[in-house]
Design brief:
This protein has 118 residues and is α+β, with helices and mostly antiparallel strands. 53% of the residues lie in helices and 19% in strands. A three-stranded antiparallel β-sheet has the order 1-2-3. The structure holds zinc ion. The site of zinc ion has 8 residues, from helix 3.
């Protein structure tokens, strides 16, 4: 039986007893219980997101230039270190050359810099 169904069943019993104050209290308590259920669902989502971020954080390799790579990534994809620090999102950097010198640019935060071999 769900919480909502349980509250409805108790409400029916209280309605038959014709006790308005008790019925109102039950409605208030029911609303509080539903609010707490919603809060628990939100907290579970936050917890799952934080665990995922924590797992990723353990795989991050930082470099002297402001990009990051992930351990165990055979492609060594370069992600924006600034975006990771501020939003915890992995944004792949664009690699291009400027006067034959390799540079990296983030398409989100627009930071760009010369790529160093680090
Ligand atoms: Zn960025």
């Amino acid at each position: 039986m769900s919480l909502y169904d349980g509250i409805k069943d108790v409400a029916k019993v209280i309605q038959k007893a014709d006790n308005i104050d008790l019925y109102r209290q039950l409605l208030d308590l029911g609303q509080q219980a539903l609010d707490m259920q919603a809060e628990i669902a939100r907290l579970r989502e936050d917890n799952a997101r934080l665990l995922k971020e924590h797992d990723l954080e353990a795989k991050i390799i930082r470099h002297s230039a402001p990009y990051i790579t992930l351990s165990e990534d055979p492609l060594e994809i370069q992600y924006c270190a600034a975006c990771w620090s501020t939003t915890k999102k992995l944004i792949q950097m664009d690699e291009y050359t400027y006067y034959s010198v390799p540079k990296l640019k983030c398409s989100v935060c627009k930071c760009n810099f010369y790529k160093k071999n680090t």
